[in-house]
TrEMBL record, chain A:
GO terms for biological process: CENP-A containing chromatin assembly; chromosome segregation. The gene is Cenpn. Belongs to the CENP-N/CHL4 family. InterPro entries: CENP-NAC/CAD_complex (IPR052011), Chl4/mis15/CENP-N (IPR007902). This is CENPN protein. GO terms for cellular component: chromosome, centromeric region; nucleoplasm. The lineage of its organism: Eukaryota, Metazoa, Chordata, Craniata, Vertebrata. It holds the Pfam family CENP-N. It is found in: Chromosome, Centromere; Nucleus. It comes from the Eukaryota. Its main location: nucleus. Keywords: Centromere, Chromosome, Nucleus.
Automatic annotation (TrEMBL), chain B:
InterPro entries: CENP-O. It is found in: Chromosome, Centromere; Nucleus. GO terms for cellular component: Mis6-Sim4 complex; nucleus. This is Centromere protein O. Pfam families: CENP-O. Belongs to the CENP-O/MCM21 family. Keywords: Centromere, Chromosome, Coiled coil, Nucleus. Residues 6-50 form a coiled coil.
Length: 345, 272
């Protein structure tokens, strides 16, 4: 077995938490059950990884299998990377009958015709997600297995999820290969980025819980039972509290919000001051960047008004994030007499 | 001690408060019922009066203003007919609810008696009919269907969209059922896609204790149909001639019958 392959497998195994190691190796399905049973998972991680490499040696693992292990690792722990979302466009109307083997062939061929030194691996999952791992080389050097990009694509959708590649120069090539393989005509990067891949999928596929009014019988969700109120206490602002709850529910719905870590607003608006103040005689816009960060941004926005920290309803600039499928905004002045600002597309 | 005494007083006060509250509620209830009785008495008098007038055959009609009842009756008739239409739509799998600025539709899908998912569509009416929000899967060509029909014929739009969704749900159901019940008889994995309109898989046929691999390719090029438009069943070129007949028979079966049921009859046949 190649030393590079051995080292790669060893390092990948080291990344996996000890208690989940067996599950991941089983998902890989390269080592047999009997082989896996010979590994003592209670020893030091270093020793475990050495054992795994030894077993792979016995089965003569090559880079292909090691690449699949890497995909499985990233599929199990996708939130360690930042994912960007790309949107493809086409003008054709026919329903596509997406053929997986065609797709793989086209993608690989397109990529390799432009850059011979690439390793391309695929893995399909139950939810129709196709994971692609690309290890990049240069025209003169073999692919570096540690310089990888990952692409997740659901067939017959116009969206592609790409983990921020180390090598920005390879991005156009990657985009071209995707467009060709998916039978689209154009691709552009959306203003949507985050760590949680599933949430990004929820936002663009519109599968997050939205609040729809309908007659259809839905299972009644457990409403919070009002706590036993002491009759001697009266809440002065109970109406306001109820109003806030109602408005919040209309905007955010009942379910859990998709998980985003930040929202960024780039302001290119003019500083609006009293003309007498004359702070800036230049008519240039005041440049400013506002960034909201949170472990779970949308849930925290949802709880702002009930916690009394903001007025309800919240600014539409904040609440439009899942609906507009973006968390990067540019706000410019409206070029008209009205002093309102607008969000550029 | 003092605290015990205070506690006792507090308990007494609480009891008294609860009793007060109960008494108040009783009184409120009584007042409400009395008001209701009054209401009903008035209504009874009114109806008696109407009956009397009719019996006297004055023929003036119950209400003095002839123009009003017609508008009222028309409005009531409109509401009844809309309710009836909504009821009919609900039975066809499309139901709707008026929202402050438009309508929210719910399209439910089913396949051969099994209820599957439902999808929502929030339409706004101003400035022109357009889709505000929806939960339609991204691979259904919603924008194309909307471009064709939404402005001109909302009913047709809903009907076409419902056809797409029901066909998709049906195809997905068949593929899921096949994977769930016959995974041990399928060689390798079932290759499918998001719309479930291209399925490729392999299975084995045993003849005279020899195993022959069969390869199936099902193409559903009609997005509103849950049966394949094109079926290709092929066996290895060196297989005996009788098997090509079997392949043709299977191909025909897949074209006519739901996938999981067709496969069920194939697998039960091969065991015999």
């Amino acid at each position: 077995m190649d030393e590079i392959v051995a080292e790669y497998i060893r390092r990948t195994v080291l990344k996996i938490p000890r208690d989940e190691l067996l599950t991941v190796l089983q998902k890989w399905a390269f080592l047999s059950e009997t082989q896996l049973q010979t590994i003592n998972f209670r020893q030091v991680k270093d020793s475990i990884s050495q054992d795994v490499v030894q077993l792979c040696e016995e089965k003569s693992a090559d880079m292909k299998q090691a690449a699949v292990l890497d995909i499985i690792y990233n599929h199990t722990y996708p939130n360690k990377k930042i994912w960007s979302v790309y949107q493809m466009q086409k003008t054709g109307e026919e329903t596509e009958c997406f053929n997986l083997s065609d797709f793989k062939k086209k993608f690989k061929r397109r990529l390799q015709s432009a850059l011979k030194n690439v390793t391309v691996s695929f893995k399909e999952y139950e939810d129709n997600a196709i994971w692609i791992r690309i290890a990049w080389g240069t025209p003169f050097r073999k692919p570096n297995q540690y310089k990888t990009s990952y692409v997740v694509y659901h067939s017959q959708t116009p969206y592609v999820f790409v983990s921020a590649s180390v090598l920005k120069s390879n991005l156009p090539l990657l985009c071209q290969a995707l467009v060709v393989a998916c039978n689209y005509q154009d691709i552009r990067q959306m203003e949507l980025r985050g760590h949680c891949l599933d949430s990004l999928k929820d936002i663009v596929f519109k599968s997050y819980s939205q609040n729809f009014q309908t007659y259809c019988p839905r299972p009644l969700q457990e409403r919070k039972v009002a706590p036993e109120t002491d009759l001697r206490i009266s809440y002065e602002n109970i109406h306001e509290k109820e109003r806030i709850q109602r408005v919040n529910q209309e905007i955010f719905g009942d379910g859990l919000q998709p998980k985003l870590e930040f929202a960024q607003y780039k302001l290119e608006t003019r500083f609006k001051s009293d003309p007498k103040m004359d702070v800036l005689d230049k008519k240039e816009p005041f440049r400013c960047l506002v960034k909201f960060s949170s472990p779970h941004l949308l849930e925290s926005l949802k709880s702002l008004a009930p916690a009394g920290m903001a007025d309800a309803p919240l600014s539409p600039l904040l609440t439009c994030i899942p609906h507009k499928a973006r968390n990067y905004f540019k706000i410019k002045d409206k070029i008209s007499s009205s002093p309102e600002s607008f969000v550029s597309p | 001690g003092v605290f015990a005494h205070l506690e006792m007083l507090e308990a007494q006060a609480q009891e008294a408060a609860v009793k007060e509250e109960e008494k108040k509620q009783q009184e409120e209830k009584l007042a409400r019922l009395k008001a209701r009785v009054q209401e009903l008495r008035l209504k009874r008098d009114e109806l008696r009066h109407k009956v009397n007038l009719q019996q006297k055959g004055l023929g003036k009609g119950v209400v003095s203003d002839p123009a009003q009842p017609r508008a009222q009756a028309v409005l009531e008739w409109k509401i009844e007919s809309i309710k009836a239409m909504l009821q009919v739509f609900y039975l066809t799998g499309i139901s709707g609810k008026l929202t402050p600025q438009g309508v929210c539709f719910c399209i439910s899908t089913a396949y051969e008696g099994t209820y599957l998912s439902f999808y929502y569509l929030d339409l706004l009416i101003k400035p022109k009919v357009h889709i505000h929000r929806h939960s339609i899967p991204i691979f259904i060509p919603l924008e194309q269907i909307a471009e064709k029909y939404l402005q001109t014929d909302v009913r047709r739009f809903l009907s076409v969209l419902s056809d797409h969704l029901n066909a998709y749900a049906g195809r997905k159901y068949q593929a899921d059922q096949l994977q769930e019940h016959f995974s041990d008889q399928i060689e390798g994995t079932l290759q499918r896609n998001s719309l479930c309109n291209l399925l490729v898989f392999n299975y084995n046929i045993v003849r005279k204790s020899e195993t022959f691999p069969f390869s199936v390719r099902l193409l559903y090029s009609d997005p509103c149909c849950s049966l394949p438009t094109e079926v290709m069943v092929s066996c290895a070129p060196e297989a005996p001639a009788s098997l090509t007949e079997t392949a043709a028979a299977h191909s025909d079966l897949f074209r006519r019958v739901a996938l999981h049921k067709a496969f069920g009859s194939i697998s039960s046949a091969r065991e015999s």
